[in-house]
């Protein structure tokens, strides 16, 4: 308790406009740590400030913290989590420092205090400044050249090069420091092989950091890493270094920012980090982790090396894994743990109960085999867990881990393989499936995870303020925007669009809102597009979204349940209907009958992307305003 009292007396707490004005009237130099309520003041510098105060012992030096959310004068500093220190003398801003750079902060305090003393003692002229760092977001976006997504094409590097994955985290990206950090990375001699800006979902963040799941900070880490866009880079070795991983980790410094300031004040984490969680940058811990992280972010990355097995280029690729019903019920978590331990990333996952027709189509090459009746019985006995696994040489490595397809042979020749470990007694069929080739893997993945289309709408309330950020996040999540148009809906079109809600009390208000100004209509294409876009949007009510999905679009951009920023189709059928309504020219003359109602189809797509591909069977969304 004594420590807390000492800290409170060191920095005056300013939480409203009246206290702010009183602070500005204080004689001498006042150093203000401006912070957001959600992330709090920069506690990492408190010990430094106390040290400076004790060493200088000057009554003209004051420290304060100021909550930007509740002080009108600090409105422009809201929505920013980068540490910002404002220096005031005589009520005027005389200096600004961004980032918790301890050596620079100490030097500026000493220098600005000396200047303020000259003004007070000798009547010198006080030089006020403007905070040049407060650049409008729109201007910053214009200045930053858009980066082409590295996932759009294959990235090939010589096998002689080592590589690592680097992440410029949301705290640094959100405040325009990404380009500055990238320049320092290049100046240090690192070669950037690939880069993209990407916003992780909570699920992706959990998967990426699953090796830290036992640590106390895991939940905070997941929330932080999914709170905004990150810059993902693949770095190659510096000149004269056989392994880039240790060179990069030395360059970024210790994870603990206080340790970074003490041991290496020039490292990236000392310059840009504020605490262990908000430490600005990430680096792979070793070469194995670098390989796993590479598969996670850049599935088209490959080296020009020749494998020992078949002479083909080894590359990051995907393969299909199936955990059959008996084992999926009893051992799924154990098998998933072994998958992660073997360096695979689970890119896609679905649990589905297959029909006999679907099993026959999937295993069409085996229908005439003697064992097929047993295989059919096994595959239709309950839910199958389907996984798209990614890593370098995924097809070959997964088949190696599985072992022989014959269960008896697997037990005799490779008792440690998965098929031997998870064999079911008196069951001749092995319990795990793996694609036999890269081509077969793509066909099988497409069977279980067919490409979907969904309709997304950026509503009038969000179009003007948040359009660019929403579009950026859509691309960052891997969606293809196959159709797009900005339009003002007529009242008649809005009524037709929301006809399912015609009997609801809010219908008239909803129609009026949707037809009052321009909105943007998009057709998004991706595996599992409907569900993923709905997850990105969050719950219909933004109040609920802020509680259950604080990083969703509605939690961040919506003002109320009516003005909730974005719309998304609730299922594939609704997506087809609304796409045809908005983009009528892409519909064909063919029609499908669904539950007795007529539904127009999309050219090039049947009602299900693969006639017998497994679907999740989602029902209509009960939430009114999607």
TrEMBL record:
One of its GO terms (cellular component) is nucleus. Residues 130-152, 593-626 are annotated as: Disordered. Residues 599-617 have a biased composition (Polar residues). Its main location: other. One of its GO terms (molecular function) is nucleoside diphosphate kinase activity. Gene3D superfamilies: Glutaredoxin, Nucleoside diphosphate kinase-like domain. It comes from the Eukaryota. GO terms for biological process: CTP biosynthetic process; GTP biosynthetic process; UTP biosynthetic process. It is found in: Cell projection, Lamellipodium; Cell projection, Ruffle; Cytoplasm; Nucleus. Pfam families: NDK, Thioredoxin. PANTHER family: NME/NM23 FAMILY MEMBER 8, THIOREDOXIN DOMAIN-CONTAINING PROTEIN 6 ISOFORM X1. Belongs to the NDK family. This is Nucleoside diphosphate kinase B. It comes from Scomber scombrus.
């Amino acid at each position: 308790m004594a420590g807390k009292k000492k800290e409170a007396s060191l920095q005056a707490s300013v939480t409203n406009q009246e206290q702010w004005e009183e602070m500005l009237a204080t004689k001498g130099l006042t150093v203000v740590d401006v912070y957001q309520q959600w992330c709090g003041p920069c506690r990492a510098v408190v010990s430094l400030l106390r040290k400076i105060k004790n060493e200088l012992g000057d009554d003209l030096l004051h420290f304060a913290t100021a909550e930007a959310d509740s002080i009108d004068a600090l409105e422009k500093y809201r929505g920013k989590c980068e540490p910002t220190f404002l220096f005031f003398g005589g009520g005027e801003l005389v200096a600004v420092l961004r980032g918790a750079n301890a050596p620079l902060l100490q030097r500026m305090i000493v220098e600005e205090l000396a200047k303020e003393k000259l003004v007070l003692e000798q009547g010198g002229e006080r030089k006020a400044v403007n905070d040049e760092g407060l650049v409008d977001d729109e201007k910053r976006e214009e200045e930053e050249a858009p980066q082409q997504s590295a996932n759009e094409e294959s990235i090939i590097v010589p096998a002689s090069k080592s590589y690592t994955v680097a992440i410029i985290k949301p705290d640094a990206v959100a405040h325009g420091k990404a380009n500055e950090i990238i320049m320092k990375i290049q100046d240090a001699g690192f070669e950037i092989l690939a880069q993209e800006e990407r916003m992780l979902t909570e699920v992706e963040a959990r998967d990426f950091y699953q090796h830290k799941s036992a640590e106390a900070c895991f939940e905070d880490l997941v929330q932080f890493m999914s709170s905004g866009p990150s810059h993902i880079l693949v770095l190659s070795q510096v000149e004269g270094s056989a392994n880039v991983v240790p060179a990069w980790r030395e360059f970024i410094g210790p994870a603990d920012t206080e340790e970074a300031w003490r041991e290496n004040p020039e490292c990236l984490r000392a310059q840009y980090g504020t605490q262990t969680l908000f430490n600005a940058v990430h680096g792979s811990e070793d070469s194995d982790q670098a390989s796993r992280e590479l598969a996670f972010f850049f599935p088209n990355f490959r080296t020009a090396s020749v494998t020992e097995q078949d002479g083909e280029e080894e590359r990051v690729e995907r393969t299909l894994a199936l955990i059959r019903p008996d084992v999926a019920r009893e051992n799924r978590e154990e098998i998933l743990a072994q998958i992660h331990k073997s360096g695979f990333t689970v890119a896609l996952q679905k649990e589905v109960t297959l029909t006999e027709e679907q099993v026959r189509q999937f295993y069409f090459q085996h229908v005439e085999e003697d064992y097929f009746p047993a295989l059919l019985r096994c595959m239709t006995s309950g839910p199958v867990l389907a996984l798209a696994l990614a890593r370098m040489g995924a097809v070959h490595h997964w088949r190696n881990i599985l072992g022989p397809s014959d269960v008896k042979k697997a037990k005799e020749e490779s008792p440690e393989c998965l098929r031997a470990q998870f064999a079911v007694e008196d069951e001749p069929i092995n319990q795990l499936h793996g694609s036999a080739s890269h081509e077969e893997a793509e066909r099988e993945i497409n069977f279980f995870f067919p490409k979907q289309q969904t309709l997304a709408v950026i509503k009038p309330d969000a179009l003007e303020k948040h359009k660019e950020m929403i579009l950026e996040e859509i691309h960052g999540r891997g969606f293809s925007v196959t159709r797009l148009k900005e339009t003002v809906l007529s009242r008649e079109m809005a009524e037709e669009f929301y006809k399912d809600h015609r009997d609801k009390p809010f219908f008239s208000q909803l129609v009026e809102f949707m037809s009052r100004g321009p909105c943007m209509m998009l057709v998004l294409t991706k595996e599992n597009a409907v569900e993923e876009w709905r997850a990105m949007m969050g719950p219909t009510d933004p109040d609920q979204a802020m509680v259950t999905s604080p990083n969703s679009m509605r939690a961040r951009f919506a003002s109320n349940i009516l003005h909730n920023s974005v719309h998304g189709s609730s299922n594939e059928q609704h997506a087809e209907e609304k796409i045809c309504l908005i983009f009528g020219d892409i519909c064909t003359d063919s029609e499908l009958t669904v539950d007795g109602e007529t539904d127009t189809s999309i050219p090039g797509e049947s009602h299900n992307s693969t006639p017998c591909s497994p679907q999740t069977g989602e029902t209509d969304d009960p939430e009114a305003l999607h």
